[in-house]
Model the fold of this input.
Amino acid sequence: MVVHIKPSAVSGRVLIPASKSHTIRALLIASMAQGKSSIINPLVSDDTLSCIAVCRAFGASVAMEEGVWSVSGTGGRIAEVREPVDVGNSGTTLYLAASLAALGEYPINFTGDRQIQKRPIEPLLQSLRDLGAQAHSKLGNGCAPFSVCGPLHGGKTSIECPTSQYLSSLLIASPLADGNTEIEVPLLREKPYVEMTLRWLDEQFIMYENSDFRRFFLPGGQRYHHFSKQVPGDFSSATFFFCAAAITGGSITVEGCDMNDTQGDKEVLHMLEQMGCSLRFTGGDITLEGRSLRGATLDLNGTPDALPALAAVGSFASGETRLINVPQARLKETDRIRVMYEELTALGADVEEFPDGMIVRGKRLKGAHLHGHGDHRVVMALAIAALGAEGETTIDTAEAATVTFPGFFEKLSSCGARVSFD
Done:
């Protein structure tokens, strides 16, 4: 699908879809729990539907009604899975489910789309081997397709985590192992996502020791229990509307996001405030008003998903915007540093690329034909950049936005964006 966007001023109110990260954690933990859980206000998207398919393959029952998903868990017993488990484009599902697969006694094969098959998973597979499981990449390249077979006994492992999902995966599965697990973490990026996982463990009364995120000890033989929980709005999705207001000088009020939640991308609000925007919190609503933007140095180590959108904002700020300490942005659905460099340059932006980030200097942009690279966050970031460019911009593979934000372009249009489709 190709989307056409013309210069627009955006303002209005937006109800943000539920958090992808929370929804997937809820599905997987409910699938391992004893009893029937209710997930209220889940995100319905390509990624979460992929996760449901995995949960069902593991033996859980998932009933989908509007606004509520009911999950009857397996009690931690993984069913025999005869067909390969296809996670589609969902890296979160791939990584978090891999360790749970090691709880079973039969080989489980994982695969995914072309992008998924380029994402590294060998460090996690090595940790699963350290903890007693069998795990190997089918092609020997450290990526999907791969196979995992338990049982997971526990033990000791050390793992560097350029993506937090390696650690979250082990933290979710290890309490269900037969024995105790000790995890050393010499490198950790995206710490807020690990904090989110730990909040889920806390709510499940899972016992663990956390030594400053450098070492974790998790007693084995624990269990998950059924729950009823409402999923909060997704700050990663809200980022694009906040940034759209920043770029166009508009005022956007976002509904459904909770500043007390563990999501790291809520920090984007303070980054935009540092760049000159104003914030207002009223009840459960968050309003951001665009102002004259100035460049800033922004450390995105904990918020890598915000890089595409903030790179777009930097294109409209005076001076330099430096997005730093975020090498893991190269390991997402695409190499987002390289991709945003290429596409913003096509719009006429002044961009420099570095191994762990980029510099963007404010400059007048002109509409162009852009490649969305099939990456949902790249597509949405280019869309908001197009709002402030002169002339029309076209973006291909725009359907990728449905991976995490179904209805993104319709909501953008409802706020005043001039959007049309081929």
Q: What stands out?
A: The two ends are 6 Å apart (CA to CA). The longest strand covers residues 36-40. Residues 304 and 403 are 17 Å apart (CA to CA). The chain is about 30% helix and 25% strand.
